[in-house]
Amino acid sequence: MNPVHGRDLDLNLLRAFVVTAEAGSVTAAAGRLYLTQSAVSAALKRLAEAVGAPLFARSGRGVTLTARGQKLLRTARPHLDALIDAALSPAEFDARTSERTVRLGLSDTSETWLLPPLLRALAAGAPRMRLVVLPVQFRTVGEALASGNVDIAITVADEMPAATRRKALFLGGFVCLHDPRHARLPQKLTVQSYLAHEHVIVSYNGDLRGVVEDALDIHRTVRVSVPSFQSIGALLDGSALLATVPEIEAREIMALRPHLRAKALPFSLAGSALEMLWQSALDDDEAIRFVQGLITGIAADLVASRRG
């Protein structure tokens, strides 16, 4: 191939060549390609220049392949057919054999209730699929999805771009978590007793305002502000501190530290829906849809168990 012209070679030239060879004339090829005869002739000329040899010879009103043209047809046709098949054939997904890696963005309250059953479900139905888990929260989830850093996110979210799909998994409330051996609370928690104690809060802003301050403008005595719920159980254990946490997080903490207790808050604090979010461009991705189905089922089982 002429190295100068070879840089301009594209699949459109090869497609025009193959169709012309099959049709036996430039005019017939132009009709099949929905191009003008001059456009097809120009494409064949460019291809011949790139190859460095004539590809067709005139034969009556049509054309016939030269020896170089026959060789190119034998070589190019299988590859061109394969490319067309790859473009037009629907993607096939087999969970049992898929080696897909799915990137999950999880809020810190989601790892404990979701990951263990999700890994068990994958082990049973998709043993070769793998997960990469990254932390997200309502301030970072939009960028994580838009950049492709995560395929599916599970978190609480505010307004999102139009290209974002979202599905509510469940609505979570809040409870007051404490160690009754050190934090002496009345049987029914009152605002006065709630505010009389020091608190540990979770703040994604790195300040002393938590969900109570933001939602109700109630100011607590905050002893420590932490960036996630992971250390809440350890901080409460053996202390008189109180923590206002999502109910689902309180259940997971108490499962590990059964001496801790949860009480109903003395005021109304509406929870936000925990949602599954993804980009609309992944709507037809069978692997993503498979994992989404597993997550939806796990969330439904969790809601059913809470009702029970």
Explain the layout of strands and helices.
Elements lengths: L2 H4 L4 H13 L2 H8 L3 H15 L4 E4 L2 E4 L1 H22 L12 E6 L4 H15 L4 E6 L5 H6 L5 E4 L8 E8 L2 E5 L12 H6 L1 E5 L8 H6 L4 E6 L5 H5 L5 E5 H10 L4 E3 L9 E7 L6 H22 L1
Parallel strand pairs: 3-4, 3-5, 8-9
Antiparallel strand pairs: 1-2, 5-12, 6-12, 7-10, 7-11
Helix pairs in contact: 2-3, 2-4, 2-5, 3-4, 6-12
Briefly, what is this?
With 308 residues, the chain is of the alpha/beta class.
Could you spell the SSE succession in H and E letters? Answer: HHHHEEHEHEHEEEHEHEHEHEEH
Q: Main beta sheet: strand number and arrangement?
A: 5 strands, mixed
Number of strand segments: 12
Distinct helical segment count? 12
- Helix-strand makeup class: alpha/beta
> Any guess at the CATH architecture of the largest domain?
3-Layer(aba) Sandwich
Percent helix: 40-55%
Radius of gyration: 32 Å
**What is the count of structural domains?**
3
Question: pLDDT below 50 for ≥5 consecutive residues: which ranges?
Answer: 1-6
CATH class of the largest domain: Alpha Beta
CATH superfamily label of the largest domain: Periplasmic binding protein-like II
Q: What is the third-level CATH name, the topology of the largest domain?
A: D-Maltodextrin-Binding Protein, domain 2
What is the mean pLDDT?
90
Q: What is the terminal separation in angstroms? A: 74 Å
Estimate what percentage of residues fall within beta strands: 15-25%
What overall form do the CA principal axes indicate? Answer: rod-shaped
